[in-house]
Design a protein that fits this description.
Shape: globular
Order of helices and strands: EEEEHEEEEEHEHH
Radius of gyration: 16 Å
Structural class: mainly beta
């Protein structure tokens, strides 16, 4: 099997031409990427469901907007917690994924993490790819791979994340931030 260079911690930004409605203008944080496949969460799909309504104990720790995000089309009945923890050491119940970004054990008592959390997002479901599937999509030009920043996880305006991530790129990708929602109307 070919060795896969890990993209864990990077963002996948959907190309404007990506035809899958699950990923239209999506910004996906890759939480795991190796030769067995990839797993990530869509950072810019807030739902109307308030975190406190389904995970009462975690509601007070969730960042604004305090809603559950649709992490992707897979396992919508499961929840993932992603949090930014500043500093070198993370508390019990948190596992570093990349830089200051890590996964929260939602079975742990929230009190273990409360003081250490810089921000917390709860995701219903995730985006997943089998071995080589993401690499094929990348080769087809479906995604742009860019560096993540801790603030991407906790953006208070997730609906504008696709444009803002593209806009901050220092190359030709920045031009795509102005791509119209419907180019046929241009």
């Amino acid at each position: 099997m070919t060795e896969v260079s890990s993209l864990t911690g990077r963002l996948l930004v959907a190309a404007p031409a990506l035809a899958d409605p699950n990923f239209d203008r999506a910004v996906v944080l890759l939480l795991d990427h190796d030769d067995e496949g990839s797993l990530g969460v869509i950072l810019n799909r807030p739902t109307p469901v308030v975190v406190e309504d389904i995970l009462e104990a975690w509601g007070a720790l969730a960042g604004e907007p305090g809603v559950v995000f649709q992490g992707g089309p897979v396992s919508l009945d499961s929840a993932l917690g992603v949090a930014v923890i500043p500093g070198d050491e993370g508390p019990l119940g948190w596992r570093r994924v990349y830089g200051a970004i890590g996964l929260v054990d939602l079975e742990a008592p929230p009190e273990l993490l409360g003081d250490a959390l810089g921000s917390l997002r709860i995701f219903a479901g995730y985006a997943g790819w089998g071995p080589g599937q993401l690499e094929d999509e990348l080769q087809d030009g479906a995604w742009y791979v860019v560096e993540s920043e801790p603030g991407d996880v906790s953006s208070p305006h997730p609906e504008g994340l696709w444009r803002s991530v593209l806009r901050r790129q220092r190359n030709e990708l920045a031009m795509f931030a102005t791509y119209p929602d419907d180019p046929s109307l241009n």
